[in-house]
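Progress note, sequence design subtask.
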């Protein structure tokens, strides 16, 4: 969580930050992490590796704690995903189909995924929900292969959110009538995202979604998505 907040790109950078004990703030962060003293680098890395398995649960717990303590406002929450490149050589689609691994340094768990901003990426996808107020923190997260669609993860990643959430803002990848129904019926909030594909036979319920999204209130709510996405 500290690495996310401070945008530290490695465990080494995190260790160096916590080692700066001449700053009172750093000591408070160290204590909040449950450490009375800072272990050496090797022990530090080993401890971090043991918590990586349940990192999703830890983020969810921390997110709900921040909501409970009124440190973040959950009224409007944002959801999005980003593609992450796998390390090593690429595994081309033709080889994946034939289950041929031409090099030993290929991550065979990774898959190809596409985004309009990054194009085709061989790797994984990070799915995340976050607060949208003055303090932006992750509230829930999931990690999948890059070819998993955003709407497939939505039911899982929204299941642990606070019942104080009123609106969920998302891009058009979440425009799915099943997700609208799930949000209202089982999550207690409204999903707000760009609604596409209007036809002569478009249902009245879908037209209402379009009308709300395009309304002044709908656009104000959706504008809150830009802050966490920029982060």
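Output:
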């Amino acid at each position: 969580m500290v690495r996310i907040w401070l945008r530290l790109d490695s465990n080494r950078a995190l260790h160096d930050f916590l080692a700066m004990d001449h700053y009172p703030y750093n000591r408070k962060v160290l204590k909040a992490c449950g450490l009375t003293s800072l272990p050496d680098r090797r022990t530090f890395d080993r401890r971090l590796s043991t918590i990586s398995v349940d990192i999703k649960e830890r983020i969810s717990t921390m997110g709900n704690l921040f909501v409970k303590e009124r440190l973040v406002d959950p009224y409007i929450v944002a959801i999005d995903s980003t593609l992450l490149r796998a390390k090593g050589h690429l595994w081309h689609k033709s080889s994946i189909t034939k289950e041929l691994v031409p090099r030993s340094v290929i991550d065979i768990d990774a898959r190809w995924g596409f985004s309009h901003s990054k194009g085709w990426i061989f790797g994984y996808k990070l799915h995340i929900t976050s607060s949208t107020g003055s303090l932006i923190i992750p509230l829930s997260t999931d990690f999948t292969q890059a070819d998993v669609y955003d709407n497939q993860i939505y039911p899982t990643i929204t299941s642990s959110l606070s019942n104080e959430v009123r609106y969920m803002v998302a891009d058009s990848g979440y425009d799915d009538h099943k997700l609208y129904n799930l949000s209202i019926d089982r999550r207690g909030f409204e999903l707000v995202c760009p609604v596409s594909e209007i036809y002569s036979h478009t249902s009245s319920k879908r037209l209402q979604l379009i009308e709300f999204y395009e309304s002044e209130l709908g656009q104000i709510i959706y504008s809150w998505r830009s802050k966490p996405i920029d982060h």
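The CA atoms of residues 75 and 165 lie 5 Å apart. Work on this subtask will continue into the next period as scheduled.
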